Amino acid sequence: MSSVDELLPDVTSLGNALRGVGYLTDPGLATALFCAARLPQPVLLEGEAGVGKTEAAKAMAEALDTPLIRLQCYEGIDAGEALYEWNYTRQLLAIRLAEARGDHLDDDDMFTDAYLVERPVLAALRHPGPRPAVLLIDEIDRADDEFEAFLLEVLAEHAVTIPELGTQVATHPPIAILTSNRTRDLHDALKRRCLYHWIDYPSTARATEIIRTRVPEAQQSLAAHVADAVARIRTLDVQKPPGIAEAIGWVDALRLLGFEVLDEDAAALTIGSVLKYREDTAVVTERSLSWLVGADA
Questions:
Q1: Burial of 192 (0-12, 13-18, 19+ CB in 10 A)
Q2: pTM of this structure
Q3: Which of 67, 178, 197, 286 could be 32's S-S partner, Cβ–Cβ 3.0 to 4.6 Å?
């Protein structure tokens, strides 16, 4: 099997590989992902929700034909939930079976790989290869400062210590992709250790191309109309501006219902595919659905 270096000799090859799995990227993002894969060095992707940060990691794993290992961050997550835990139920059963046979088990018998439950970070570090896993640390901004510090050390050393088993050093350091919606500022120490790229909303033409790539059955005109309507919504004072993910979902809903064009009737029936707050729907409908679909231009 080809190595990452052989598969990705340059940025262009990565861009082509990502396009081959349905993910369109610009030169800046392709460069950041290329460096993350080849250095290797963690990359922090920031941007509004729905612009394709998580999808970038999924596409990297698919393009490299390697596992995607995802750690979804949330408030209160701790190191144990990212690294490992011991299967105490299985250990207890083993102890009872040993007692029934008259055997004796000591700590060396109980704390082995057979009873270890790997969580995402440890699983990525222990991935046997031949290519590194893609470790997606999703929405790191939801975690707290303590978890950030722990993560910083792990990503810098590509190793963790399990007291019962010793230090676990990655033979194939994972391609680490961190995402953030900027609900809070991350520490400078973490940012210094990472490559950085801001993913902005795509242009209408680019969004149309992305929609057509993800929903190839959709007509060019429908994809373009939806891309334009989503761009219009983002000019309004809505709580949750829609991203490319919502645009793709909108096209899927329109196609499912048999609409070939985005007119006022279609928009009225499917607006819930792109707007997720009642207040946002009110803002758009007050501006008028004819404006949304470009009928009053």
A1: exposed
A2: 0.89
A3: 197
